[in-house]
Amino acid sequence: MADWLIWLIAAGVLAAAEASSLALVLIMMGGGAAAGSVTAALGGPLFLQVVVALVATVALLGGVRPIAQRHLHLGSGALTGSDALVGRTAVVLSAVDAHDGRVRLNGAEWSARAFDEQQVLVPGTEVRVVQISGATAVVLDEARLDDRRALDPPGEDEPLQHGGST
Q1: How far is CA 19 from CA 34, 67, 107, 128, in A?
Q2: If you write DSSP's letter for every residue of 99-151 in order, what string do you get?
Q3: Does the CA dihedral 150-154-159-162 come out positive or negative?
Q4: Cα-flanking dihedrals φ and ψ of residue 134, to 5°?
Q5: Burial letters for 82-102: b for 16+ Cβ neighbours within 10 Å, e otherwise?
Q6: Distance CA 61, CA 24 (A)
Q7: pTM of structure
Q8: What is the pLDDT of residues 64-94, one digit of tens each?
Q9: Residue 82 gets which letter from DSSP?
Q10: Are 92 and 121 in contact (CB under 8 A)?
């Protein structure tokens, strides 16, 4: 059997084995074997084939694998669904209190309740979404919160209490 064909079969086996590990190591070794196959097809001696395969494998492991891993793990920090709505602003459509209300959030109408049980938010008020609870946006009027902070700023170790429960 020709040397190039042996290298090519080894590359295929390594690439197929990568499907079970997904560590991106075997596929890089398969790339090295493919480089060895090209060297053999061009008539290089066995020693040169092995050297080319090793150098290509090391280059792929050191250069391509880290980049490929970054691209594979890119989506891990992205917020989706209702989690992406937390922190956004909304506009009150009908009075929002601790139990009921409606807001326009991200172009859609949502049921809402006030985070601070003592707040009653009037229509037109711009609020911040602090939590999504089922299909209900839990909102807070930041302007009022800023007014409270100005009147009674918390100490360094004392967190600001909102008076509501989540």
Answers
A1: 17, 18, 42, 45
A2: S--EEEETTEEEEEEESSTT--BPTT-EEEEEEEETTEEEEE-HHHHHHHHHH
A3: negative
A4: 65, -120
A5: beebeeeebebbeebebeebb
A6: 8
A7: 0.48
A8: 999 988 887 765 566 667 778 888 899 999 9
A9: G
A10: yes
